What does this fold into?
Amino acid sequence: MNGKRCTWAALAVLLALPAAAGARIKLATLPVRQRVEIQLDNGAFTLVEEERIVPLLKSTPASGNNMIDFSWTNTRIDRDSVQFRPVALRDGDAFRPIRADGGQEEISVINVAYPPGENALVWEVYAAEACAAKVRVSYLISNLTRSFSYRAAADKDETTLTLRNYIELQNYSGEQYDQAGLWAGFGPRFLKPIDQQTEIRMLLQTFADVPILKTYTFDWYAHGPLNDDRPLASKVLMHYVLTNDAAHAMGVFPLQPGKVRIFIADGRGGEAFLGEDWAALTPLDGEMKLYLGEARDVVCTRTIQDNRRHAVRGDLFHQELRIQYEVENFKDKPVTLDIVEQLNALARQYGGDPHGDVEWELGAGTSPTIRLNMEEGTARPILRVELPARPKDADEKVAKQTFTFHLTLKNLW
It folds into this structure.
């Protein structure tokens, strides 16, 4: 708390005088902060811990205990979260731990009161002798928040990139701190002044030479026909996929959600802007997938070559299908294409309601060059295929690569 918003005082209350018993007489002005630590690992509330030196009077039957007054205005502090802890006593030029004598500590908190209608707390503190005590006060404060952002710069060949991870502090809490230690719960600790209504951007980590997996994804049920002229083709989306582990030059801590600005080296010493995406929470060993846009030089068409119904009993049946994909790669380097099939949507279109995730089995007519990936669940298999680069001779026609997915959707009705 700064001097304008929050006040501390050591109060001596003479219990023998009824008129003074309920009074809050401030005997000392606000001690300056010795240290402030701010922990930013929670997105809704921020934990602040202050360390101060507070003068205390000796507690006696005549004078009673010390009353420590803590109040604030125009500051979003959660009063139920405020805690007060004496941690040390001044001994000459240094501080020593608080000792217990006969079971009674030299300093101890006896009681806490909440003055009605005020943003304030009053602690009753016992002191065996007059002293200067080092105390820590912690509390949760709102509108002192953080967010995360990234800057990804790929090399010209799109084989590696440099990923810079930033933490951004926004202070609209009504409080300011001349100097505070900042920690996100991971990564480095920062020491910064934090003014009111300010935003601070700090570099949390730089990951250099991160290997890139550039993927191309075709998902018919997500995007539908490309246009009226090409009703059997659909969009092919491009992504950079980064793996958050040590083998891929990362794996230091989980990567928090945040906006990613993506650049690529232009071959002349500069960078070109590719676009922006929103990164999801990426745990250790997880993958961060960054959207780059639509591919214009990879074309995929999808046709249903065979569609047969096999009765089982009553209204129950199996639906057998052969799906054919014709793919053209106009790029001058090989491409990996992920074809996503949403089998629940496929069942509804050609069979019936699967009543949950559809049962299915792979047919013998599936192209052996297809690699099946079930990372999105059994009802959303990913068919991964490899496409060769276009011919080096510009006059030579790009050959179409044909793949077949043969499957049977089971127990539909």
DSSP finds three helices and 28 strands in the chain.
